[in-house]
Write a structure and sequence with these properties.
GO terms for molecular function: ATP binding; ATP hydrolysis activity. InterPro entries: AAA+_ATPase, ABC_carbohydrate_import_ATPase, ABC_transporter-like_ATP-bd, P-loop_NTPase. The protein is of the alpha/beta class. The chain has a 6-stranded mixed β-sheet with strand order 6-9-10-3-11-12, sandwiched between helices. A 4-stranded antiparallel β-sheet has the order 2-1-4-5, with helices on one face. Strands 7-8 form a two-stranded antiparallel ribbon. It is globular and about 65 Å long. The longest helix has 16 residues. It has a domain of 168 residues: Rossmann fold (3-Layer(aba) Sandwich), CATH 3.40.50. Helix 5 packs parallel to helix 6. The chain is built from 8 helices and 12 strands. The relative contact order is 0.18. Helix content is 32%, strand content 29%.
Length: 246
């Protein structure tokens, strides 16, 4: 089932054209790799999907409904979550506190309302178990590996039953073992029927975990094809312009 459909999406910032007539579909449970050089338009496209700013023109259909996002909370309300490269985690808090940051569970204690730390810890532990992560709910984020931090950020997307997760360079600057952990987390999302758009410069990651690869160059889509029908060499040629389109 097609979950996300973009038709003719374009974005201009004054005289600068960031995106030109982008058509894109993403199915439920599909992992799509989004690749391109710096300035190709990847971040602009993801920010439009995530509700950071509206497109200049074009239409977006999500879960069979036309959508118009004015802010990120609008995108989150329909099931679109983002895991940014910096993860936006609070190092001084526990894993559970980060998972529920801004969405804390509360309970009544007489005349006052207090945070329900026990309930948040239980729910966070269940999410980490679903993701088959070794992260523990009461671990402090500042003591975690890169892979564990990604697990916290991904668990946060599961709170509201996300349908589409946008991941921005999740394996940048982490070890080989941690890369494997993150790719496993992406597979868990896919197996749960959640669609993933993976923005990455790492060719091995895209060809390991993605079903399809989409290549942008100078704001235009120059390729959109199944992983099995492409190769790292072809994608590199498309990114650099050695090959015009595929």
């Amino acid at each position: 089932m097609t979950l996300l459909r973009l038709r003719g999406i374009g974005k201009e910032f004054g005289a600068i054209r960031a995106l030109a007539e982008i058509d894109l579909t993403v199915a439920a449970g599909e992992v799509v790799g989004l690749m391109g050089d710096n300035g190709a338009g990847k971040s602009t496209l993801v920010k439009i999907i995530a509700g950071n700013f509206p497109p200049s023109h074009g239409t977006m259909i999500f879960d069979d409904q036309p959508v118009h996002f004015s802010r990120p909370i609008d995108a989150r309300s329909v099931g679109i979550e983002v895991v940014y490269q910096d993860l936006a985690l609070a190092d001084n808090l526990t894993a559970a506190a980060n998972v529920f940051l801004g969405r804390e569970l509360k309970r009544r204690l007489g005349p006052v309302t207090v945070l329900d730390h026990a309930a948040m810890n239980r729910r966070a532990a269940a999410l980490f178990q679903e993701l088959k992560s070794e992260t523990r709910a009461d671990d402090l984020v500042r003591q975690m590996s890169g892979g564990q931090r990604q697990a916290v950020a991904i668990a946060r997307t599961r709170l509201k039953e996300a349908k589409l997760v946008l991941m921005d360079e999740p394996t940048a600057a982490i070890s080989v073992r941690q890369v494997a952990e993150v790719l496993d987390l992406i597979r868990r999302l896919r197996d749960a029927g959640i669609a993933v758009i993976l923005i990455s410069h790492r060719m091995p990651d895209v060809f390991t975990v993605c079903d399809r690869v989409v290549v942008l160059r100078r704001g235009s889509k120059v390729a959109d094809k199944p992983i099995q029908s492409s190769s790292p060499e072809e994608v590199t040629a498309l990114i650099t312009g050695a090959k015009e389109a595929a």
